[in-house]
Amino acid sequence: MNTQILTWLLAVPAVAALVILAFPRSWETGIRRFSVAAMLVELVLSLRLVFADYSGAGYNFVEHIAWVESFGISYKLGVDGFSLWLVVLTTALSPVALYASWGSVTKSIKEYAFSFLLLELGMLGAFLALDLFLFYVFWELMLVPMYLIIGVWGGKDRVYAAVKFFIYTMVGSLLMLVAVLYVVSSYEQLAGHYTFDLQELSNLVLPALPQYLCFSAFALAFAIKVPMFPFHTWLPDAHVQAPTGGSVILAAVLLKLGIYGFIRFAMPLFPVASQALGPVLAGLGIVGIIYGAYTAWVQRDLKKLIAYSSVSHMGFILLGLFAMNRTGISGAMLQMINHGISTGALFLLVGVIYDRRHTRMLDDFGGLAKVMPRYTLFFLIITMSSIGLPGTNGFIGEFMALAGTFFSRTPIGFGSSWFIMTLLATTGVIFAAVYMLHAVLRMFWGKVTHEENESLPDINSRETLAVLPLVVMVFWIGLYPKFFLDKMNPAVDSFVTDFTVRYYEGRRTSEARLVDFDELKARLEAAGELAMTERSEEEARR
Amino acid sequence: MSALIGVSPLLLLVAAGLSIMVIDAFAEDRTELALVTAASLFVAAAVAGVLMLGDDITTAPELVTRYLAVDRMGLFFDVVICAGAGLSTLIAGAYLREHGFERGEFYVLVIFTAFGAMVLARAVDLLSIFLGLETMSLGAYALVAYRRTSARAVEAAVKYFLLGSFAAAILLFGSALLYGATGHTDLLGIQQSVAAGAADPVLTIFALMMLVVGLAFKVGAVPFHMWVPDAYEGAATPVTTFMSVVVKAAAVAVLIRVLIGAFGDQSTMGLYTGWTPVIIILAVISMVYGNLAAIAQSSVKRMLAYSSIAHAGYILVGIAAASEVGTFAVSAVLYYMAAYTFSNVLAFGSLILMGSKGKEAVSYADLAGAGRRHPMAAFPFVIGVLSLLGLPPTAGFFGKYYVFSAAVQAGGPMVWIAVLGVLASVIGAYYYLKVIVYLFMKEPEEDAPIAVPMQSWYVVVALIVAGYYVMKLGIFPSQYLDWAVAAAAGVIG
């Protein structure tokens, strides 16, 4: 079982989803318990991945089976430092989100559990796939269950939000498909056979123009998912309309797939374009940081506020990512996990209050600290994590992403624009504190302004059980991030090195050709040329 | 007898059609006729399938092969046409009985129309093209008019018949010119004559364009699509299903044979010369117009009609790509045809399943909330529209992937046509999803008549079979890809 653990990870939700279909509709308790239990089994399985050796650069638990041989499509899965924590984040938050949903979702629960399990399958598949075709299949597979979750179990304007979500995502992903086809067909012309295997495809060096076009197509698909300003407009709609469980998964996991796509596919395949356009994307990230924060500030609807705060947070992640150094990328990776935890928890907490009052408007609350002390405590902790108070996870991630930007004076990275980027992004941190603290102030402090709120029951044990693991994670990552960083650092290091090699090789090329990158890297390493980038980073640090 | 083994699916159908006429004269219970018809179509499909996989298929007397191709592509289309027709027949068996206008001649017409389609798909001579086309078309006209008490059906049939006759006349005119230009009626002879430069180029191009117009009409490509929405809407839904898969498949087959078989020469086929730009233009406007017009429809049947126009566009993209990448693109088109057939049967069959006597499900509003009330009946509908939309892991996705991949391989402007194609198919998301929106996310209006799903094993079996292949072609396509490639290999000279 050890060797096929990734297939098991995909099989458990798939089989559980089919089993759910066979359940009688009237047996609601059974469906609820079974679906959550299946996801917990999944979580336990995924924890096995953590206890593997990630000190090398390659993938662990690789499985490789030919799928459509004539097209070189294969079923190839693997996990490395980049995907490890995202997989665990997915398996950890899915049961939490589903468990929390059972408080408010009362109609068609069979279909809800089915959609949720299918969604988990799609997300895990996308994180684990090392074959572009397989990745695309899972990427699209996520779309339908999420569409149904928003559209069937959502709020008043759910249909509009669901269709918008679907069409936005599909525009990006179909253009990405054409770019994938272009890459594969270029590879075929040189190598004589088709392949969708990421490792084989990364030996392909494309000249600048195709790189720009293909990177743009990939970047569009991923930027919409992130969502990066100005492609973020679907997110507030989707979040506001989605049921609590859907919002949690959307914020905590789905958005991460965009960033993950950049790291795994877009940047390694098209390094020249990525280096040229990276600062632009990071610049849009900064616009997102400030715009998201400012827009969040003026929101009256708590869910919208958190949605815009996501736009803002994802900006930091983009920034750290395109800083192209170890600090920045590790920070971006860690901040992805952090954002998953804190925003997931925030949506859970909003769900708690919404179930009691059926409103999410800030104006309808006030003085809740007196009525719901334990709820207030949880909300405060998560708020602190979200604005990045030292001691919480948010601080570490944000700090590293900003530090990465600050050190990104190397030719690969932001070059001379590092200063203005750092300056603007750091200002964004202050904004984040403003909107979150503003919301906390309006909701919890002061007098109880509405009579209905005086008798609200405090957070109950079911809800506590859902939030508590996330609060533990907030402090764990905040106080001892080494455990998490150690697993991803080797992957980040080799990513930066590979990127450098590919970038210079891509710069040198004027027509598509194949290069054996492993061999090239070994040669450059022997000549000591690779230490260059690391050295300049060190210098910058001093 | 063994000499005719290569065309045995055709002979089988003729025998079945004649027998059914006789059985109908004596039978009391007509529903069994649906079963007999479907069974004979499936047997023909199975025979064609076995032959296609066999080693030696070229056994047929010269008298036959001069007019009808005995090759793997012919057999491939036999399978697609017979499977599509068989599934439509099963659906019809349920539908006609439920709505109370079942008569024996329906099944006879279905069989002979399918026969005509198979002849057309194998035709390698201008004469047999015309014969096949007319056999198929006359049957199709009669099938559209079959519900003769309905004014809409009659109107649709008259429209279809008049426009279809014009198209056939244009095709015939083109054939005459082509004969005049090359001195040949057989495609091989035409090809050799064109390759040798013996044919008058102006006359040849004129003739070819006329052939393309006649066939584009049957494929349902813009701007020759005018009949499609009306005929599809006016006809009884099983007839629509039948037309959308059988007639289109046959037209696509003969288009491939004419364009790539007879005019596959360098002088007449190239990205900037010959017929390729024309096909590209037809493809682009079909994709864009079909998808845009489908948005505006309030009837699901009409929406599916426009969607079939859009799909004709995707197919033409594949045919245009064949001018550069040959077998790869042709096999993509074949695969697309198979995927489209099963997906379309699934979507139309589900639409039929959603209604019953007194209240047929036609418009979106008829579907409102049906998914909530009858989830099992709505499930195949969801798979069907997702496959037509081209979402993995369905057959529709793999078909679309294959066709666009052929376009990207063809390179040059075709890459941008592929980009345009995927953008056009995003529009599809809007109207295909609308089906799911109505099924699961809306409730019916107050005091609107509610469509109740019908109870019939015929439809259920048809949907299970179609659904099975939609998933199979999407998840495990390898085997079918090999068949499509083998079938396509014979066409490229």
Q: Could you characterize the architecture of this molecule?
A:
- In chain A, strand 1 and strand 2 form a beta hairpin.
- By secondary structure, chain A is mainly alpha-helical.
- Chain A has a two-stranded antiparallel ribbon.
- Chain A is built from 22 helices and 4 strands.
- The N and C termini of chain A lie far apart (48 Å).
- Chain B is mainly alpha-helical.
- Chain B contains 21 helices and no strands.
- Chain B starts with 7 loop residues before the first helix and ends with a helix.
- The mean pLDDT of chain B is 89.
- At the A-B interface, helix 5, helix 6 and helix 7 of A face helix 18, helix 19 and helix 21 of B.
SSE layout:
The complex is a heterodimer of chains A (542) and B (493).
Chain A: H1 5-22, H2 28-50, E1 60-68, E2 73-79, H3 81-101, H4 109-128, H5 132-141, H6 143-153, H7 158-191, H8 198-201, E3 204-205, H9 208-225, H10 234-241, H11 244-269, H12 271-297, H13 302-322, H14 326-357, H15 368-371, H16 373-387, H17 393-407, H18 418-444, H19 461-479, H20 482-508, E4 513-514, H21 517-527, H22 531-541
Chain B: H1 8-26, H2 31-53, H3 62-65, H4 72-98, H5 104-122, H6 126-144, H7 151-182, H8 187-195, H9 201-219, H10 227-234, H11 237-262, H12 276-295, H13 300-325, H14 327-353, H15 364-367, H16 370-373, H17 375-389, H18 395-410, H19 413-441, H20 457-475, H21 478-489
